[in-house]
Design brief:
Radius of gyration: 42 Å
Strand content: 15-25%
Strand order of the largest sheet: 1-4-5-6
Number of strands: 7
Shape: elongated
Order of helices and strands: HHEEEEEEEH
Helix content: 10-25%
Number of helices: 3
Distance between the termini: 112 Å
Structural class: alpha+beta
Largest sheet: 4 strands, antiparallel
Length: about 160
């Protein structure tokens, strides 16, 4: 099968290029992936956590993408725009400190005297007092209220 599809080269010669001077092969032959820095300045890579040092605060790296580079010998480097970042490896993910705001006991809110709720309460108590005195109509005799049909839709 290989003989059937074999094609002879047009020119004979070695087409491999020489390695440019100053090219670090350790940085070329490695695993490299982008990662997003969390708000606590940690990066996760292959079930490992890396905490970026505070000296890089001016870069404001939270929520930004950095490159994690692992060389073939197992060493890890963190890069942001080609610049190496200082970091430390954490055994477990750092737990953020809980900030508890001091709470002041709140006094119950009492509406002012001219507030509409107060007016509703006052009118309700007047109705209750009138009911107690003379029945639901509000008259001591218990008679029904006079009906005034003047100027309503019931008037003829």
């Amino acid at each position: 099968m290989n003989r059937r599809f074999t094609v002879a080269a047009r020119e004979r010669g070695d087409l491999h290029r020489t390695i440019p001077a100053g090219l670090p092969l350790k940085d070329v032959l490695c695993f490299e992936e982008p990662r997003v820095v969390q708000n606590d300045w940690t990066v996760r890579w292959r079930h490992r956590y890396f905490q970026i040092n505070r000296q890089h605060e001016t870069l404001q790296l939270a929520k930004r993408t950095i490159m994690v580079r692992e060389r073939l010998d197992g060493r890890v480097a963190l890069l942001y725009r080609g610049r190496r970042l200082q970091f430390r490896e954490c055994a477990v993910r750092p737990v953020p400190k809980q900030v508890v705001a001091p709470s002041k006991p709140r006094a119950p809110w009492i509406p002012p005297a001219d507030h509409p709720w107060r007016k509703a309460v006052l009118s309700g108590s007047r109705r209750a007092a009138a009911y107690r005195e003379g029945g639901p109509s509000g008259y001591a005799s218990g008679a029904a209220l006079p009906i005034n049909n003047k100027g309503t839709f019931l008037s003829s």
